[in-house]
Specification:
The chain contains 17 helices and 33 strands. The chain has 742 residues and is of the alpha+beta class. The protein is elongated.
Length: 742
């Protein structure tokens, strides 16, 4: 019986003659595998895009500009405030008027919540204490009445704020109030200081309060001192510590006195170039903001230039916003401040970042007073019979390109510098968010790691693939690749707690071992090559490696043993003291060399594996042809094998670079983790990745530090992506160049 004819399938139509028939399930498995591979590739690409998008989304708010929006003006039922202060949440406003009353108004309706009259006689002047809810009223008889306002907050169904006026404090200037041309006041529960400019001198009145912690008994002491004043002095400002007095005259000169128990010392004098029209101390009291007659602004520091000398220096400057500056108001947090011009123009600035955050017209004619909330989210401008509120959105004033990457002049620093110090001891601490020392530390750690890793990885790969016996290759290559599985935290732990203290005691011997290592390796090779051929043929495979390793270990041990001798001969018996005296550098046990050695252990396996694969893939026919034409083995390796494998070798170096750039735990544990801008191998450093690991747990979500850390991560992503892209382009170019050799 004849078999039934076979029906051709679609698979048969695509099958070449003589090719075996593939079963339908296997075809489906093959297609499914292809789909999985494609999906995996697409997923990897989408993951990279998603990571980049997330980093950009978290970083983009740093570019958001400040916004200032005017609210509805509040009509005041009585009094024209000559000085203003705002409650922290902007629910109430306090103002002192020329009638001697201090009133608290509801910020939404203008209704009077509290009215006190600490100076029933019409005062000659009203002064608001910068950044505080305290007012000073000068009486005709020369008394200065200091009236603080306190707000009590209660939380129930809603937040309730109750204003209160503690008992005022009086200080006698002992001169007619009409003689006073300028007044500066600061008050704390323990000390109140009033400085008055009268006649041709300064009058300094102080009242201190000491309270016995056990009996509650209070003891008050008053003191009065005088000091000469420069001719033309017109403005005064006193720092919160009540130790430094600032002044300005009509010719553009600024002054700074040190106040002590024995009077005023100084002054230090600086020329601002333009007459000052307003003075204010920023939060912390170390920065003096100055408004000038031409509408420009500047920020000054009072610095110590030596043990017994101080000087007043201009640290930041801002261009003119129009008319002369009438009033300055600092924020209670950060280094932002408001400037109000005679023409009603309003400007928002940040001292540290030297940013003009916002400028515009306030819409207020004839402004009389300015207040900036402690949280920096609102302001009030007073005029006759009304107060104008302003809502302020100022999320990231500390950030600018110059603040992140350029030198910045910080408070108490003698000159501009690159500094990373995200937090301080108090809210008054100035944020220092320079990424430059972190980027520098990243490159520094990478260079020291590659200094050890590239020669060992590349040369080891050359020897393993081109010289080593194939029977040893099957052992050596897996062992080196296993090194890549060592956790970086273990390497960092060993480097920081074991290697660093031991290397400190034998560092001269370590230097000798690094110098002698290549010489010992060459000597071992020469020694093995000098042995008779009939002897080397009888030796086991790998004898040359064992001989080289033994000589290297023995030589290294000898160098370490002779370290004290090297220290006496070359470094006067003390390497650390010699380094400090000759270069000014100090030896930090957890330094760049220790980190470089530890990071090299993490980078070498990657460089070795990629380089060895690239070298092994060079066709043996090329080597054989070179040898057949009379070239020796090393000429063949140098002139044939290495050029043919150069694309892979370059890729190995760049991937090792990326591995070193992103290393975190080794750097975190093996260095001092200090953000120094110093290339010295004997100092520590901090990298961008280590900084992220350190700072993220303490960064409030959405705050400036949080965003800057994401900017650091974005920078690392871009750098590694650019390095890998460049490596691929160069590798492809080298591949095309040497394509004819394959």
């Amino acid at each position: 019986m004849e078999p039934a004819p076979r029906v051709e399938t679609r698979a048969d139509l695509h099958r070449s003659p003589g090719q075996a028939v593939t079963s339908r399930p296997r075809l489906w498995l093959d297609r499914a595998a292809g789909w999985v591979v494609r999906a995996g590739g697409i997923g990897v690409g989408l993951s990279l895009v998603a990571i980049l998008a997330f980093l950009v989304i978290e970083t983009a708010p740093l570019l958001r500009a400040a916004r200032v929006a005017a609210g509805t003006a509040l009509a005041l039922p009585s009094g024209q405030p000559l000085a203003l202060a705002a409650e922290e949440r902007l629910s109430q406003i306090a103002g002192a008027s020329a009638d001697g009353h201090v009133r608290v108004y509801d910020a939404s309706t203008g209704a009077v919540q509290l009215d006190v009259a600490p100076a029933p006689d019409a005062p000659l002047s009203v002064t608001g204490v910068s950044g505080e809810s305290t007012f000073a009223l000068l009486e005709p008889d020369g008394r200065v009445v200091v009236q603080p306002i306190a707000w009590t907050v209660a939380y129930g169904a809603k937040r309730t704020v109750t204003p209160a006026a503690p008992a005022p404090l009086e200080l006698a200037l002992e001169l007619p109030g009409s003689d006073v041309r300028a007044l500066a006041v600061r008050s704390t529960p323990k000390l109140t200081t009033v400085v008055a400019l009268a006649g041709d001198g300064l009058v300094i009145a102080r009242k201190s309060v000491n309270e016995n912690a056990f009996s509650g008994e209070r003891e008050e002491k008053s003191a009065r001192q005088t000091a000469p004043a420069p001719a033309g002095l017109a403005l005064l400002a006193l720092d919160p510590d009540q130790r430094t007095l600032y002044g300005a005259d009509g010719s553009g000169r600024l002054f700074a006195w040190e106040l002590g128990d024995d009077g005023a010392h100084g002054p230090d004098v600086a020329d601002a170039g333009v007459p000052a029209t307003a003075l204010a101390l920023l939060v912390g009291g170390r920065s003096l903001a100055v408004g000038h007659a031409d509408g420009s602004l500047s920020v000054w520091f009072h610095l110590r230039a030596g043990r017994a000398r101080t000087e007043l220096v201009r640290a930041h400057a801002f261009g003119s916003q129009g008319a002369a500056i009438r009033a300055l108001a600092p924020s209670g947090r950060g280094r932002s401040f408001l400037a109000l011009g005679e023409d009603g123009a309003l400007g928002l600035y940040h001292s540290t970042s030297e940013r003009v955050l916002w400028r515009g017209a306030s819409g207020v004619t004839g402004p009389a007073a300015l207040a900036f909330s402690a949280r920096g989210d609102g302001a009030f401008v007073a005029q006759a019979g009304a107060v104008h509120p302003f809502a302020i959105s100022n999320p990231y004033p500390e950030v600018s390109l110059s603040a992140l990457f350029a030198r910045v002049w910080y408070e108490d620093y003698p000159e501009p510098a690159f500094v990373w110090q995200s937090t301080g001891g108090s809210e008054e601490a100035e944020s220092k968010l320079s990424l430059t020392p972190l980027a520098f530390g990243t490159l520094k750690g990478t260079l020291y790691a590659l200094f050890f890793a590239i020669p060992l990885g590349i040369l080891g790969a050359v020897y393993t693939s081109q010289v080593m016996d194939p029977r040893l290759q099957s052992w050596v290559k897996p062992v080196v690749e296993i090194m890549a599985s060592l956790p970086s935290v273990v390497l960092g732990f060993l480097a920081g707690l074991w290697l660093a203290p031991r290397l400190e005691g034998v560092f001269p011997g370590f230097i000798a071992a690094v110098v002698a290592g290549p010489l010992l390796a060459l000597g071992a090779g020469a020694t093995y090559a000098a042995l008779p051929r009939r002897l080397t043929r009888r030796l086991p495979v790998g004898t040359e490696i064992a001989l080289s390793a033994a000589i290297l270990l023995l030589g290294t041990a000898v160098c370490f043993q002779l370290s004290p001798l090297f220290e006496r001969i070359f470094f006067r018996g003390d390497f650390s003291a010699f380094l400090r005296e000759t270069t000014g550098a100090t030896y930090d046990p957890r330094n760049a060399i220790v980190a470089g050695v530890a990071m090299a252990f993490a980078v070498i396996p990657i460089v070795f594996a990629i380089a060895e694969d690239s070298l092994s893939n060079v066709p043996r026919t090329l080597s054989a042809a070179s040898l057949a034409l009379g070239a020796n083995r090393w000429q063949t390796i140098a002139r044939v094998v290495l050029p043919a494998a150069s694309p892979g070798l370059f890729a190995a170096v760049m991937i090792g670079f990326g591995r070193a750039v992103g290393e975190t735990m080794i750097v975190l544990m093996a260095t001092g983790n200090t953000p120094l801008l110093d290339m010295s191998p004997f100092d520590g450093f901090r990298t961008l990745s280590a900084n992220i690991a350190v700072e993220v747990p303490e960064a409030p979500q959405g705050a400036t530090l949080y965003r800057v850390l994401f900017l650091s991560a974005l920078s690392l992503f871009v750098v590694t992506f650019a390095a890998n892209t460049l490596a691929d382009l160069v590798r492809e170019r080298l591949r095309r160049r040497y394509a004819g050799t394959r």
